[in-house]
Amino acid sequence: MSESKPLQVGIIGMGTVGTGVARILVQHVDRIRRRVGRDVQLKRATVRDLDKPRDVELPPGVLTDDIDAVIDDPDIDVAVQLIGGTDPARDIMKRLLAAGKHVVTANKALLCEFGDELFEFARKHDRTIAFEAAVAGGIPIIATVGQSMSANQITSIEAILNGTSNYILTEMLKRGSAYSDVLGDAQRLGYAEADPAMDVDGTDAAQKLVILAQLAFGTKVPLDRFPRSGIDQLELTDLTCAAELNYVVKLLATARLVHGELEMHVQPTLVKCDRLIAKTDGPFNMIALEGDAVGKTWLSGPGAGQMATASAVVADVVDLAVGRAQVTFSRLDLWNDHPPVPLCEEDKIAHRFYLRFNVEDRPHVFADIADILGRHDISLASIIQHESSEQQPTSNGASIVPVVVMTHYTAQGKLRAAEAELSQLTSLHPPIVRMPVSD
Ligand code: NAP
Ligand code: HSE
Fold first, then answer.
1. Which of the residues 43, 208, 279, 296 is marked catalytic?
2. How many angstroms separate the CA atoms of 256 and 158, rounded?
3. Domain map of the chain by residue range?
């Protein structure tokens, strides 16, 4: 890139994030010039629908509905690719790289599924992909893991990586609302994906964990190789029962080395109230990282939303303009471990567990549950049963009451076997709710 002429930028996708990026580039020309040492000019911004209102004032001629106006413009040095999903984003990304542009993206779905292919393609064309905004929005986690922690073997990542889910969990407990009542607010506030199913079923957090784990452990773990579940099945009653036990439910993404194997999962988890991660509310993300030299570190900040994400995207543009991003990108493939770290089998993963059963309020029910758990070598730490309101009797006249059990450490496989037996008890009404506990 020539150092004297302005750096020209093209944005593809002017939705929530693209609009924020354009706003920073247009409104903070002087600030960006000082950071880069020359002008950075927004030359084109591509959308599907030219008539949609955009919450930013652009110079005449910048907005276009023609993607080729970015791809085929030899003066555009950096393309900011902000279309979500994999199709047509994957093809557009390759065309941009082949046309000689460095690419900045916030698209974790694309990088999770096709990152290796796209990185190789970029290297073949001597171009760079910068992706700080793809994980944890405005928190500089990619730079932290990919640069600042390079002296360490990272041993553990425990993180809140989906702002939408965290916002919903926070609001459910605060307002006493059902999950479906709060989802619309997360969408209106610009936190959710175009298809919010990916946020609430754990997929978005898992995609981000795949990217982080590859950087941290040098091992690419495909999305379908580790367990993930989201908050979409959670009931308010589990959040309040957890609170009663001094825990907060968070959608936790975990990747850690345990006896030389990589344990990975994304699932709603009870986190002890006094931990920093439990105090991370609203659309904020938090990443607890442990490295063998540095020890424990925590990064927290806005993980979703327009300006927070735009902040990370524009930082990547600046890094490309000064050549920092190229240096980091050119080294990343050397970090991959050969052979890859083996993945820990799901049934071997051990936790303490929270279990909630809907039971008929009649004699011997507790004893049956305790007997089955005991025979599977699962030790109970505590049990709570609230008195029944006598409002919902079953056909045999018994009321249904929730019973909450906290177990001691046990392997998931043992619990799964016990659950299969528990589900045969006629006094238990589905579902059985199970969440791991992180103390
Ligand atoms: P969005 O609001 O849905 O915006 C997507 C934009 O892409 C829209 O401007 C849309 O044009 C444009 N677009 C879609 N398909 C197109 C096509 N075929 N040709 C041209 N333009 C097309 O999405 P977003 O929230 O900004 O997210 C963008 C990316 O950033 C996603 O990968 C997302 O996962 C990621 N991300 C988002 C956040 C966040 O907080 N929102 C945070 C971190 C990362 P129209 O406007 O004309 O429809
Ligand atoms: N939909 C995502 C979230 C945006 O809620 O975290 C940030 O990647």
1. 208
2. 8
3. 7-134, 151-301, 346-438
